[in-house]
Each structure stands twice: as C-alpha cells, then as structure tokens.
Design brief:
- Helix content is 72%, strand content 0%.
- The chain is mainly α.
- It is globular, with a radius of gyration of 19 Å.
C-alpha cells in the first residue's frame, strides 16, 4: 500500500511538472514574470524604507528577512496546495464531482493532482534570494541547531498556510463562493506579515497571532535570531512553537474538512 501511495504520488508529480513545463521558454518567462512582479513590490518597499533608519527598531535587512520567510514558505506551499487555493472554481464548475468518483481519498487528489509551478519558482526563488541577502547583512551564523530550527519552522509555516487554504476551501462546500474571504483572511493578512507585527494596532496583532497566525510564519521565527526589543510584548516561547501551531491548525482544518464533505451537494456545471 505504501509503495503504491508513493508511486502514484511520484506519477502525479511527474505528469504535473511536465504539463506546466511542456513549453520551456514560456514556462521560464512566466516563472520570471511572477518573480519580477513580486520583486517589484519588494524594490518599492526597499526604497521607501531607505528614508527611515528603522521601523520600530527593525532595519531594512531585518524586514527583508521577514519577507523572505513569507516567500519561501509560499513557494513550497503552492506545490502542494494549489488544488485547495483554486477549490472554489473546481466546485463551481462541477469538477469536484470527478474526485468523489475515484477510489483515492478526495483530499489526496486535490493536493497531488495540481501544482502551480510558476508561482512556486517565482515566489520560492525570490524568497531564497532575499533569505541569502538579508541573512548575510544581519550577520547570521548558521549552526546545526539553527539550520534544524529553520527547517522545522519553514515546514510549520507551510502547514499554517495550508491549514488556512484547507479551511477556506471547506467553506466552499457551504458558501460556494469564498474569494472575498480568501482575500481578507489570506492575501491581505499576508501583506501585513511582511512587517513586524508590533507596528500594528493591537487588534491586528491579535488577529495575526491567534486568528490567522501569520506571525508564526515569519515574525516569531525571525525573533529566534534577532531578539528585537519588541519581542518583550509577547511570550518568549512563541519563538519555538511554529511547527506545533502548524500541526494543530492543519489537524483542526482536516477535521473540519472531513465533517463538511458529508454535506457536499453538486453545483452542476
């Protein structure tokens, strides 16, 4: 059974990768376009922040380190969760019915039957570049402990965002259209995550810590290295629990999915 699972997953991945990169020049250009679209926003922010010595004690390179974690985690996330990101369209067109008729688990099919490789390469490439540049400027010394910490932290950040996608995808079973919710609770909150949460109103800080916890994707992991003064506003153990937060959130989102899928009604096409 395990060998069948891995062989099928490998087959899915191979087919999807080939389909996205069937036309190599087009694939390279589209991935580069995603990279430049996101990089342009970072460049604008960079030159804007050059006018200030720091933002609540954070200098420009420390903030780029925050952005790098957002982009790296999203680059990995979108390889596995494209089907959940686009689940609303799948439901509205009736395409979800096909998944229900197949012998494999529905969530497994959604996760492994598609991957936005253009976004993965564009976002992930930018995240790695920012990570390397900013880590060099803030003087990071990579010990084995720090490497292990960030491997688990990045995995936790992917699970946190994957859980948000899964929760919003599940709401499509009830609401059919959730693009506005996705815009508010994912894309807008992700924009806030590029900055230290201590600069925002307490209500936004609460939301980013306990409701849509992007703070655990990058802010608290960055504090593991930086130990900025604003960390004193939060419990210090928050720096260490990103993997736990990601795992708990994903389990809760998965239970919500399993409960809700029983009430799915086809929307037709």
């Amino acid at each position: 059974m395990k060998s069948d699972f891995f062989s099928l997953t490998a087959l899915y991945t191979k087919m999807i990768f080939r389909s996205w990169f069937q036309y190599k020049v087009d694939a390279i250009l589209r991935s580069f376009a995603v990279f430049m679209r996101e990089a342009t926003a970072i460049i604008v922010i960079y030159f804007t922040l050059l006018k200030f010595d720091s933002l609540n004690g954070w200098n420009i390179y420390e903030m780029l380190f925050l952005f790098s974690l957002v982009y790296v985690t999203y680059g990995i996330l979108i390889i596995f969760f494209t089907g959940l990101r686009d689940f609303g369209q799948t439901v509205r067109t009736g395409g979800f019915d096909r998944y229900l008729l197949r012998p494999r688990g529905v969530l497994y099919q959604l996760i492994f039957s598609n991957a936005d490789w253009f976004a993965a390469v564009g976002h992930g490439g930018l995240g790695i570049l920012l990570f390397i540049l900013s880590a060099a400027k803030i003087g990071v010394v990579w010990t084995p402990l720090r490497i292990v910490y960030y491997v688990f932290t990045i995995a936790g950040g992917v699970l946190i965002q994957g859980a948000i996608f899964l929760f919003l995808a599940t709401l499509n079973i009830y609401l059919l259209e959730t693009n506005t919710l996705k815009e508010v609770f994912y894309w807008n909150m992700r924009k806030f995550a590029g900055y230290p949460i201590s600069i925002f109103h307490k209500a936004i800080q609460f939301c980013m810590t306990f409701i849509v916890p992007f703070a655990f994707v990058n802010y608290f992991p960055a504090q593991f290295l930086l130990r900025k003064d604003d960390l004193s506003c939060y419990p210090s153990f928050f720096m260490y629990i990103t993997p736990l937060v990601g795992l708990v959130m994903y389990i809760l989102a998965y239970l919500f999915w399993n409960f809700s899928i029983k009430y799915y009604k086809s929307s037709g096409n």
